[in-house]
Amino acid sequence: MSSDTWTSFLDWLATVFVPAWGELIGLLNYIVLASIAGPILAIIVLMWGWYLIKRRRGVVSRGEPEPAPAPIDAEGAAVFPANVPYCEQHALIYPARARACLMNGDPLSVTCPVDGTVRNAEIDTCSACGTEFKLGANSASSVVLVSDGPPEGGAAVA
Hints:
Blueprint: H1 3-17, H2 21-26, H3 28-54, E1 61-63, E2 68-69, E3 86-87, E4 92-93, E5 109-111, E6 118-120, E7 143-145
Antiparallel strand pairs: 1-7, 2-4, 3-4, 5-6
């Protein structure tokens, strides 16, 4: 390397490493503002994130579907749909997974949708036509329980 090249390299290096003090003094206000406001904003953002993670969320109460009264026809007899468990004595239609009446514990009945034969809900195969049904196999039914309002004593008790 010649001394001329070395001098030009050192001059270029001086522009990179030696600061322009006038410009840095002009940026001093921004540096002080950033050093004060930066941590304050960081704390606010962290507290906001902590709140979003730890905040109290609503509680959903789930329950099983309740039996529904069967529709009544013009003659006053209960009408039960096919392939749905029902209690003929109490005229109630039950959810698909139910097997016994909630009133007296008797087994529920099911009407075959193919030939109309009535069978016990615990039996999966129709004795007349041989059709096999799995009641409630696809149903993941659950009911969201709705409350009438805040708990007794107000929302502060909850």
